[in-house]
Design goal:
Strand content: 25-35%
Order of helices and strands: EEEEEHEHEE
CATH class: Alpha Beta
Radius of gyration: 13 Å
């Protein structure tokens, strides 16, 4: 069984993909950048502000799927600049302070809408 997850409380997909898919007891989110769902525009600010928005977007998607950040088992963080790692990590740590998920962090050449950070997660349903 495979269910498409969609919520207006997170940015709408900007391409042919779903915000998340729920399958076999897991939720797989698409990568989220710092788009404000109210305006569909990237939020102004530094890596901390963008990371905050990304994690809020992921939280909304997971809640729409009946899950939450506390059920995340794996995440992947894509950074435009690895020099932003410490500042991103400080915000990330506020959302995953207890039993954080497994994670990879990768520096990339460019992200959609020239965002500074993109994060995707896998969570328990």
């Amino acid at each position: 069984m495979r269910d498409i997850i969609s919520t207006k409380d997170a940015p709408q997909a900007i391409g042919p993909y779903s915000q998340a898919i729920k399958a076999n007891g897991f939720i797989f989110t698409s990568g989220q950048v710092a788009i404000d769902p109210a305006t569909q525009q990237i939020v102004a600010g530094d890596i901390a502000a963008q990371t905050e928005r990304v994690l809020r977007n992921l939280s909304e998607i997971l809640e729409a799927a009946g899950s939450g950040l506390g059920k995340v088992v794996r995440s992947t963080v894509f950074l435009k600049n690895m020099n932003d790692f410490a500042a991103m990590n400080q915000v990330y740590g506020k959302y995953f302070s207890s039993a954080p998920p497994a994670r990879s962090t990768i520096e990339v050449a460019r992200l959609p809408k020239d965002a500074l950070v993109e994060i995707d997660v896998i969570a328990l349903a």
